[in-house]
Amino acid sequence: MRTYESAYLRIEVTDQEIRFCKSRQNVLTIPFENHIFSSYVSSYRIQFIFVITNRYLRVQYPDGKIKSHLCSGFSDELFKAFVEDVQQVHQKDILKKRQSAPSVLDKSDVGLELPFGGVQFQFPKEEFRKRLFLKMWGKFFVYALISAILSTAIVAPTVIQVLHSDLTSVIRYVSVAFFILFVPTGFILWSNYRSNTRKIPEVIRISDSAIRIDETIFHIEHIRQIDMTPDTLIPVPGELLNLVRKIRIQTTEGNREYLLGHVKVKRTNYIYDQYSALFDSVNAFISHADRSGKS
After folding, report:
1. Cβ density class 187-208: b for 16+ within 10 Å, e for less
2. Would you say the CATH fold of 104-123+201-291 matches that of 2-98?
3. Per residue in 151-181, pLDDT tens?
4. CATH of the domain spanning 104-123+201-291
5. Which fold does the domain 2-98 belong to in CATH?
C-alpha cells in the first residue's frame, strides 16, 4: 500500500482499490476494476492576486457516470506521483485480464464475428472527422482574432503617424499585415487536418493471421511491432486535453499510423466506445504472434 497525504487528505493506493481518508476515517473507496481514471488541474484567481489551484482525480464509474474527486492540499509533485501510481496499478490490472485471452478467435463477445474467423470493427470515420473539423475551425477563429488584433495594434498606428495615410490606406495596410500573419498559420492548420483525416480508418478486421485496415492488409509474418494507446490512459497533470488514440504498425515494408478517437472525455472530443474491445483483440493478435515465434 502506498500513501499520499496532505494536511487535509490522505489517499491510500493498493493493488485493488483507492481509498480517500479524512480524520483517519475512510470516506470513499474506488476499486480499479471496471473503472476508468483520468486527472485534471484547474486554477483561478481571487481578486486578481491569489492563485488557487485544485487537482482532481476524475473517475468514470461502471454505470457511465463521471465524478471528479478533489485531492485537497496536494502539491503538484505529490499529485503527479499519485496519478502515475494509479496509472501503473490500473495498467497492471488490465494486463492480467488480457493474459487470459490467448486467441482472437476465443473473443466471441468482441466486435462482429466473421465467417472465416476473427472479428471486425466499424469505426465511425465521418463522426470523428467532423470533430476534428470543428476543432480546426476553432483554432482558425482564435488565430484569426489574434492576427487581426496584432495587425491593427501594430500597423495602424505606424501608418497613421509615419505615412499620414487616410482610412482607406490604413485598412489596406492592416489587411496585408493580417494576410501575412494568418495565412501561413491557416495553411498549417488545414494541412494538419487533411493529414489526420487520411489516418482515420473505417473498417478494421483482425484474424489470427493478419490485420486488415480498410484496403491495407498487414500479414503476421511482415509485422515487426504494433504500438497502441492504452485504453485507460491517464495524462500527466497539465497535459493537453486533445490527445488522440493511435495504433502504429511497423512492418518490413514501412510504417502506418491510424487515429482512433480522443483519449479524454470532453464535450468536443469523440470517444470510440469499442476501443477497449479493439485493444483486447489487437493484444490477442500480438500474443498469438509471439506464440507462433513471429513478431
Report:
1. eebeeebeebeeebbeebbbbe
2. yes
3. 787 777 766 666 666 667 777 777 888 888 7
4. 2.30.29
5. PH-domain like (2.30.29)
